[in-house]
């Protein structure tokens, strides 16, 4: 297995940009679909990275803590920026949803990251039950999501309280299907080809279709995104530095773009400049804040684990 799935990094970066362009006066009319691709990619990558490290409860607990360390620093940054720009409740800094209509008035995208945390925890706790539980989750999620899309008219669900449970269906289906794709993935089939860049093209027509029909959403979520995830995992793009860079900054970009976009719109800043500003801000946050915050928290966790092992060893020796 390669150290990174660089084509999937490319997808993550482009998906984050699509979400911003959706929030920017619907420049990409169905950019919300990129969130479903995020969920699928997360499930795939987590399975490939951790499937051999969830054998007992100590490993499960370690995974959950490290996953929170991976996600929380930038979630906190996004919550803090949203609070500064739009006001709201200080509880948002602890990721507590307190909005009356939106889950997170301060920064609407936090709903998907909250569900990402829950999905990661569920993955760790249920992994030992094997494929049957995964198949059940995919089927239940698919039925619930398709029904919700039909009822509400599109798949832009989860960020409001009234569509919270349909949002749960989105992550249940997408994340679990990504895990399933990871389970059947064969590393020996990987090859490097420039055709990997072309895999970013099939979602474009669906993202750009105007509102009015549920079929583009259903086709993209149930067919196009699984297909490009499978192909993207098997085809590595050459000259991968730009793809890796896009993937590295995509999380920070996603979590900060909404409040910065709203702030820029108050001053009628053109979308292209907002996009450029978000890219720069995301790079700075990822490089100088997120890496250091995660390093500090990981060092603290490692120190606590060493102390625990030392005490356990002494106790066993005394016994």
TrEMBL record:
Transmembrane stretches, start-end: 30-50, 71-96, 108-127, 134-152, 164-185, 194-212, 218-235, 242-261, 267-285
Any one GO molecular-function label of the UniProt entry: acyltransferase activity, transferring groups other than amino-acyl groups
Keyword Chloroplast: no
Keywords, sorted A to Z: Acyltransferase, Membrane, Transferase, Transmembrane, Transmembrane helix
InterPro entries with a match to the protein in the record: Acyl_transf_3_dom, Acyltransferase_3
Domain of life: Bacteria
Domain Acyltransferase: from-to ranges: 8-281
Stated name of the protein: Acyltransferase family protein
UniProt source species: Pontixanthobacter luteolus
């Amino acid at each position: 297995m390669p150290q990174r799935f660089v084509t999937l990094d490319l997808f993550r970066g482009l998906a984050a940009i699509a979400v911003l362009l959706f929030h920017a006066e619907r420049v990409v009319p169905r950019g919300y679909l990129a969130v479903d691709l995020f969920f699928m990619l997360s499930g795939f990558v987590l399975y490939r990275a951790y499937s051999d490290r969830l054998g007992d409860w100590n490993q499960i607990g370690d995974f959950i803590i490290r996953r929170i360390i991976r996600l929380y620093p930038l979630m906190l940054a996004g919550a803090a920026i949203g609070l500064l720009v739009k006001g709201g409740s200080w509880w948002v800094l602890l990721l507590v949803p307190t909005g009356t209509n939106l889950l997170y008035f301060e920064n609407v995208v936090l709903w998907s990251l909250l569900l990402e945390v829950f999905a990661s925890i569920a993955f760790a706790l249920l992994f030992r039950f094997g494929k049957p539980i995964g198949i059940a989750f995919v089927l239940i999620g698919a039925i619930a999501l398709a029904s919700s899309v039909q009822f509400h008219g599109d798949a832009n669900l989860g960020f409001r309280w009234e569509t919270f449970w349909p949002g749960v269906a989105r992550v249940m289906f997408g994340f679990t299907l990504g895990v399933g794709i990871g389970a059947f993935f064969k590393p020996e089939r990987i090859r490097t080809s420039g055709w990997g860049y072309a895999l970013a093209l099939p979602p474009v027509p669906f993202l750009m279709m105007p509102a009015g029909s549920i079929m583009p959403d259903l086709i993209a979520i149930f067919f196009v995104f699984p297909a490009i995830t499978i192909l993207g995992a098997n085809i590595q793009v050459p000259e991968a530095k730009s793809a890796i860079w896009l993937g590295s900054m995509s999380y920070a970009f996603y979590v900060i773009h909404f409040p910065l976009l709203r702030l820029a719109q108050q001053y009628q800043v053109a979308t292209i400049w907002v996009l450029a500003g978000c890219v720069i801000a995301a790079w700075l946050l990822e490089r100088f804040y997120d890496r250091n915050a995660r390093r500090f928290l990981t060092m603290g966790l490692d120190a606590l684990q060493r102390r625990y092992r030392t005490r356990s060893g002494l106790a066993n020796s005394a016994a």
